[in-house]
Amino acid sequence: LVGDGMPQFRTLRGMRDFLPKDAKKMRYVEVVARDLARLYGYGEIITPVVEHYDILAAKSGEEIRERMYAFTDMGGRRVALRPEFTASIARLVATKMRHEPKPMKLFCAGSLYRYDEPQHGRFREFWQANYELIGSSKPEADAEILTLTYDLIERLGFRNYWVKIGHVGILRGILAQEGIAEEQQNMIMQLLDKKRLDEALTVTRESGASQSCVAALKKLLETRGKDVFQVLKETKRVVEDYESAVAAVENLREILELTRESGVKFETLIEAGFARGLEYYTGMIFESCVPEFEIALAGGGRYDKLIELFGGEPTPALGVAQGIDRLVLAMKKQKVSPKVPEENKVMIIPVGEELKTKAFELSLKLRNTKIPAEVEMMGRTVSKALSDADRRRVTHAVIVGPEELREERVVLRDMKKRKQRVVEIQNLSKEILRGPN
Ligand code: AMP
Question: Which of 66, 127, 193, 295 to probe ligand 1 with, by most ligand atoms within 8 A of CB?
């Protein structure tokens, strides 16, 4: 078919196949993330991959909007593949979950789509584990999302990481008080997010900001560091003439005090001029980072105005999106291996055609006792089947031969020790679980 007008047999650019070894790692992170959701009381929701374009485009920001997989479906609707979860969640909270008691804690995991330029750690289809906390404007809520972020990284076993934190209210507070319209503010924030600082300052100047505002902004971009409370003090000094910016600094201080005092020990980098691409953020924003990667493993923040945009009551909310793909890549780089106990794996080998049925019967019995079991099905001789079992890292082979079977027995072979013995069929599971012979 190739060369005959058929596309080559490979995945689309930025899309990947996950073979069992890789899929296992992705699922491992997802399982740890889901278990964390359970421990923190976050209920799982599942939302569609395809949504109305307008819902997804509402407040995601220029950058994501331009990269959406958008198309017209066969019913003539303008639709898109979700580039993130938060819009779907805001839609749910504003509609079907309107009357649920607050706070509402929601977890979801799944695939997302962005027509990004593929590079290391950036794909067009990727996965996130996402936590949203809806209904509380208190610093406790922000502290919980930070704690949860820390907890996941710790559970996955990372050795070296930090969390970068800022507050949208600091920059927006200054710009708003200077009378700069939201649209211009968004543009400035986008430029800051992309580290195009000079352009950001130019736009600020051209939007009519005062000399002292531009000076304050410039200063803020340099105000960063790991001595959290010292940086906050400095930031407060820089923005002292801007009331809501001061309130934002205070809010951040409260959140970080709460997290610190409750025993969360992560290295924190405060950046007063930190901006994230998404437009809907209104409060604390953060990213978790590892030294091996220039891009963040997770990102999150507070978005108090988003739910009303979807027709809901004014509802404070915040969340964090953990990038599963990047967590897996970072685990590999830090040589962190999944904490999964070694599992038994049994291969049942019938000696001869007439014992196939017995082999299948035994495999069912083993699986009923939660032991993973397979039956040899390539018609191999016992010795060929054993070397194949070795290659597949089978822990035990069960050889079903006519002589032993007459006495309701089989041969159980420990593949690692290369030792075998005859055991009663009725004791087979017990013998396998007993460990090495
Ligand atoms: P964002 O929604 O852009 O704040 O992204 C949150 C997290 O999702 C990031 O920190 C990444 O871990 C992950 N992520 C975002 N975009 C991509 C992508 N194109 N490929 C892989 N992971 C991504």
Answer: 295
Nearest CA to ligand 1 atom 1: 299
Residue 109, token pair as written in the block: 């995991």
Distance 353 CA to ligand 1 centre (A): 53
Residues 6+ apart with CB under 8 A from 415: 386, 389, 390, 394, 395, 396, 397
Per-residue pLDDT of 306-325, as tens digits, reads: 999 888 999 999 999 999 99
DSSP string, 230-274: HHHHHHHHHTTT-HHHHHHHHHHHHHHHHHHHTT---EEEEETT-
Question: How many Å lie between the centroid of ligand 1 and the Cα of residue 64?
Answer: 11
What's the confidence (pLDDT) of residue 4?
A: 60
pTM of the model: 0.91
Q: What tens digit of pLDDT does each residue of 257-284 get?
A: 999 998 888 899 999 888 876 778 999 9
Any atom of ligand 1 within 6 Å of the Cβ of 82? no
> Which among 366, 363, 401 has a CA at the least distance from the CA of 382?
401
